[in-house]
Design goal:
By secondary structure, this protein is an all-alpha fold. It has eleven helices and no strands.
């Protein structure tokens, strides 16, 4: 426990210094509608805790959950297919890369036109932003498996399925968890962008509504809640990773 606390000390000091800088800038500017202080944001978050925690946070987390689940399934399927079939790799890899060159803010309004203010317009934005790190990172994990190891198992009579289950799958697990920790913040950003551009609920929608009222602290309050949610989810995934990929810590 002491080692964990000591490891987190530099981050805690840096966050404290950044908050002090933020507080000083906000006090010097004295324009809360442009740059509220951290204390004003926390106060506003407490005042708005009812609608934020009971209505808008669950709405955003629903989008994140659905979008992230689809991205994981889609990303794993594409990575496995590209690893299994070289022709599929040559066909799909450029398309996966090209999908990330499309501005998300340009497609989000189209999704709203196609699906309205339903959850699926936000889910599609989330999937577009999150399937890429899962696909590419897991695919790189498959490629990291040494050819000599595969040939050795094959020489001992292992089937392709046994090579996949006993060699490739354990080797790719660290890559999968790394991809998941990258995809979680992106999924929350995607959900917020989708809600910002067209929604009737959610933290992104609430932040936009506060901006139209020139409520600076109200704009930052849901953003702070999104950051906390992302850190909690990444922390949960990291804890699961330490249990599943236990050999990484031993190494």
């Amino acid at each position: 426990m002491k080692r964990i606390n000591r490891a987190n000390l530099p981050a805690a000091i840096l966050v404290f210094l950044m908050l002090m800088l933020w507080q000083g800038l906000a006090m010097g500017m004295d324009a809360a509608y442009i740059l509220p202080s951290p204390s004003q944001v926390l106060q506003r978050l407490w005042e708005l805790r009812g609608p934020l925690l009971t209505a808008h946070l669950p709405s955003t987390m629903l989008v994140v959950g659905i979008g992230l689940s689809i991205s994981i399934v889609l990303g794993l399927a594409l990575a496995i297919l590209m690893d299994y079939n070289p022709v599929a790799e040559k066909a799909l890899y450029p398309i996966v890369i090209a999908s990330q060159t499309i501005p998300t803010t340009a497609l989000a309004p189209l999704f709203v036109l196609w699906f309205g203010y339903t959850v699926w317009s936000k889910v599609l934005v989330t999937v577009l932003m999150t399937f890429f790190p899962v696909t590419i990172t897991v695919f790189d994990g498959f490629k990291s498996v040494r050819t000599e190891m595969k040939e050795l198992m094959f020489s001992f009579g292992a089937s392709p399925y046994q090579i996949f289950r006993k060699l490739k799958l354990p080797a790719v697990l660290p890559y999968f968890f790394s991809a998941l920790k990258m995809a979680i913040p992106l999924s929350i950003i995607g959900a917020a962008i989708g809600e910002w551009l067209g929604a009737q609920s959610g933290l992104g929608y609430f932040s936009r509504r506060m901006m139209t009222q020139l409520d600076g602290a109200g704009v930052f309050a849901p953003i702070l809640l999104l950051s906390v949610a992302a850190m909690l989810l990444v922390g949960i995934v990291s804890a699961i990773e330490r249990k599943v990929v236990f050999w990484r810590s031993e190494m």
